[in-house]
């Protein structure tokens, strides 16, 4: 969602992942915030351990799209990547100009795990699994005017009136500073 009074919408694009078995795609939105060019991207990459190869291919497509954006623009990708750390390593890691926001902010422990079956009972999984499936990638703009990640927190930690959490994942809230 974009607040029209502060964000100027420029364009949007939906890029289908060609070999997805789960109808997944990449959504890209080009906006301007206080004169700063910004590309917002999101996706839900292929789920489960058995689809690691396709998930890695999808990550490569995301990283390629980030790199193709104009250098004058800030890029923020956020989504349910379902990535394991070794999968990021397997695809060659993140390019030097793309940051994992959680790592950039010093790997804060309070928001490390976005999928935690011990704390989140929605799926009823008896085993304890803690993974960082949800991630935010960031590429800073070259030139004047910058947007910088400032903090990261988890959302959705409280059960709803129905006794369930909003999702089986915790959400990520990233606060950004706009430096003019």
TrEMBL record:
UniProt keyword annotation of Transmembrane helix present: no
Keyword terms, alphabetized: DNA damage, DNA repair, Hydrolase, Magnesium, Metal-binding, Nuclease, Nucleus
Keyword RNA-binding on entry: no
Entry's Gene Ontology molecular function annotations: DNA binding; metal ion binding; nuclease activity; tyrosyl-DNA phosphodiesterase activity
Cofactors required: Mn(2+); Mg(2+)
GO biological process, one term: DNA repair
Gene Ontology CC, one term: PML body
Major subcellular location class: nucleus
Subcellular location, record wording: Nucleus, PML body
InterPro entries: Endo/exonu/phosph_ase_sf, TDP2-like
Domain of life according to the entry: Eukaryota
Assembly behavior: Interacts with TRAF2, TRAF3, TRAF5, TRAF6, TNFRSF8/CD30, TNFRSF5/CD40, TNFRSF1B/TNF-R75, ETS1, ETS2, FLI1, SMAD3 and ACVR1B/ALK4.
Family statement: Belongs to the CCR4/nocturin family.
Record-given protein name: Tyrosyl-DNA phosphodiesterase 2
């Amino acid at each position: 969602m974009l607040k029209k009074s502060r964000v100027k919408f420029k364009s949007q694009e939906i890029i289908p992942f060609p070999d997805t078995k789960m109808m997944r795609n990449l959504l890209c939105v080009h906006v301007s915030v206080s004169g700063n060019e910004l590309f917002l991207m999101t996706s839900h990459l292929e789920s489960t351990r058995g689809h690691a190869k396709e998930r890695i291919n999808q990550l490569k497509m995301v990283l390629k799209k980030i790199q193709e954006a104009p250098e004058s623009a800030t890029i923020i990708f956020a989504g349910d990547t379902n990535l394991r750390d070794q999968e990021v390593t397997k695809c060659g890691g993140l390019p030097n100009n793309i940051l994992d926001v959680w790592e950039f902010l010093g790997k804060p422990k309070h928001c490390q795990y976005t999928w935690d079956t011990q704390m989140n009972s929605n799926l009823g999984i008896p085993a304890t699994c803690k993974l960082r499936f949800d991630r935010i990638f960031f590429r800073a703009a070259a030139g004047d005017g910058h947007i910088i990640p400032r903090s990261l927190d988890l959302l959705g930690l409280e059960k709803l009136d129905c006794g369930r959490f909003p999702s089986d994942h915790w959400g990520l809230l990233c606060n950004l500073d706009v430096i003019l």
